[in-house]
Amino acid sequence: LKLQFLYFIGSKMSSDNKKMKYAKDLREEHSDQIAMWRQMSERIQEASEDQQHGALEAAHAAIGMHFTSGGARLFNNGEISRIVEQVLEWSTAVHLRSFYFKIAGKLCYLCTQNTASRVVEKLLKQCQQMLKSDKLMKSSDEEDSTGLPTLKALLKGTVDELIEGDEESDIKLIDIILHPGGSYALRVLIYVLAGKVPPEKRHKEAVTVMEPLDSGVPLDKLGKAIVKVLAKDDIFVNRICSTQAAGILDVLASVWEGSELHDQVAANMDDICKSSVSSRVLEACLKSSACHKKLHSHFVKHWEEMMQRGGLYAVQRWVANCPDEESMQEVVEALTKGATAIYNKWALGVLSGVCEGAKRHPSARSSVMSLVKSALQVTGSLFDTLIQLDGHHGVAMLSAMLSYGPSEATAALYKGVAELTVDKISYLLSTVAGSTMIEGFIANAKEKEIKKFSNQLKGSFLQVTTSCGSAAFVVEKLYAVLPLSYRKTVAEELSAGIKQLQSIYSTRMTVKKLRLEQYKHRYEDWEEAEKKEAKKSKMLSSILGSEAKPSAGKKRKRDKNE
Q1: CA 350, CA 368: separation in Å to the nearest integer?
Q2: Cα–Cα dist 258/212, whole Å
Q3: Fewer CB in 10 Å around end: N or C, the chain?
Q4: How far apart are CA 427 and CA 331, in angstroms?
């Protein structure tokens, strides 16, 4: 063991020394050029609008000249690659096409380099921004008056180049997939082909900004090639246990409905669940209704075993994404039979998922609430049990049930929230799950419960509003649905601490939206404005024929620290 440990340390040190030597060689190789690159970047930043086009022309001419003489190795220098990324961000569509055309043929090499792959990522993101312009969305794939291929043609060429690989550098598609930098470049390319903007964080949804490129043909071609190369030699599961391959398939499954990927996942489900990394692919596939239906029967029979092997999150995704009423009922029946297993494993995420799934399937809501009581072995009040559970799952389940709307089954839950103490409300508002739950209560509760909840906060509105960033947002929501007499109470309490509210970033907007300055100095004007608002709300309710509640205005972004 000692010898093995020493060998490991020695090989790691040798590898680190090689990397340091390679970085040093790059710095020395381009040391005479770095000053020139810095000057070029500064010239573009300082240029006026009239001069900027000329500065960009000079920058791209310099990049092209150095790329031709020094090759793709130029972008391996970290500082130079960052400057090139800046130049791409400022570039026009013609400049992007010119740069793209120059590096075509070297993309496989660039994607397998740590710093150069970031240049490819930046180029693809900028191309997508340009593609949103109607002028560039041409049906022609040929050259236009500039003599350069269109961005659409260049992107299609990129797909072909990556699939075929680079024989000169002996780089294949699998090498790009398994490379840390190349895998990120591939993810960006997949999003661009699908017409979506890559999300800044993994758990965020990608935003659609345009139709899939060429009706989705290039995306389909790339998706099939990726699945084929990963499934080669029947080692699909082994390969997707790498974070790079799993990350690519995670993205691919979210934008592509290819049956090839679903078939591979269905054939290897049990093995995929053994690893938390590979199970991410299964989770992503379950977002697709077609794949969910294909895997549903296997989950119904083996969900308990899959939870034990590490597929807990996949089971949560399965119960939350049921595409129809029938499959939802089958999920509830299967979980009810194994309610003891849920309790023993304390798999609260599964219960939270099935509560979320019932939002879309009203017929399953009563059976879901019975399942939760059975799984948690509730003997008294369901509300007390959920609110006292450790972690966020109890509050998340409560939030989902409140979204079902007031009914005989949920009446006790609404009553429980309306009777919460000030300290408990302040604590809940300090958490994401808690503030979401209270927002849901305010949006769905009847006027009687809203008034009761407001009475609980009477005398403590200033304390609660300033307790955390999300609290101010929720107080605004509550204020918007209160009758005039209750609004006066809120405004009176908050206006007494108006200086404190104005000194806090998250409560400045509250002062403006509740017109607290007006209440304090021109009460008659405030009252008149509130009466007009109440009248408008009443007219809206009569037109809609329901108890429509007034809006609290546009939803504003939460504070970063919340």
Answers
A1: 12
A2: 14
A3: N
A4: 34
Contacts of 447 (CB under 8 A, 6+ apart): 483, 547
Report the interhelical angle of 432-444 vs 469-481 (nearest 10°).
0
The distance in angstroms from the start CA to the end CA of the chain is 48
- 64 vs 70: CA distance, rounded Å: 10
Residues 6+ apart with CB under 8 A from 26: 73, 76, 77
Contact 218, 193 (CB under 8 A): yes
pLDDT in tens, the chain (562 residues): 565 555 556 555 555 555 555 455 555 555 666 777 777 777 777 777 677 677 777 777 777 776 665 566 777 777 888 888 888 888 888 888 888 988 888 899 999 988 889 999 999 998 888 887 644 444 444 455 667 888 889 999 999 999 999 888 889 999 999 999 999 999 999 999 998 888 876 666 777 878 888 888 999 999 999 999 999 877 888 888 888 999 999 999 989 988 899 999 998 888 888 888 888 899 999 988 989 999 999 999 989 888 877 788 899 999 999 999 999 999 999 999 888 888 777 788 899 999 999 999 999 999 999 999 999 988 889 999 999 887 788 999 999 999 999 999 999 999 999 999 999 999 999 888 899 999 999 999 999 999 999 999 999 999 999 988 889 999 999 998 898 889 999 999 999 999 999 999 889 999 998 999 998 889 889 888 888 887 877 777 667 654 445 544 444 444 444 4
What DSSP state is assigned to residue 551? P
Distance of alpha carbon 171 from alpha carbon 406, whole angstroms: 61
Please identify which residue in the block is written with the tokens 């809206």: 540
CA distances from 180 to 117, 196, 241 (A): 9, 22, 14
Q: Can you state the angle between helices 151-164 and 180-194, rounded to 10 degrees?
A: 140
DSSP 8-state symbol, 112: T
How far is Cα of residue 42 from the mean position of the Cα atoms in its chain?
A: 35
Asked if 324 contacts 292 with a C-beta cutoff of 8 angstroms, the reply is no
Rounded to whole angstroms, how far apart are CA atoms 54 and 332? 66
User: Residue 333 contacts by C-beta under 8 Å, 6 or more apart in sequence?
Assistant: none
User: Whole-angstrom Cα distance, residue 16 to residue 22?
Assistant: 10
Note the Cα 455 to chain centre separation in Å: 37
Give the count of beta carbons closer than 10 Å to the beta carbon of residue 101: 17
Other C-beta atoms lying within 10 Å of the C-beta of residue 473: 24
Distance CA 553, CA 562 (A): 20
- Which of 382, 307, 296, 384 lies closest to 340 in space, CA to CA? 307
Beta bridge pairs of residue 208: 196
What is the sign of the dihedral through the CA atoms of 227, 233, 234 and 240?
negative
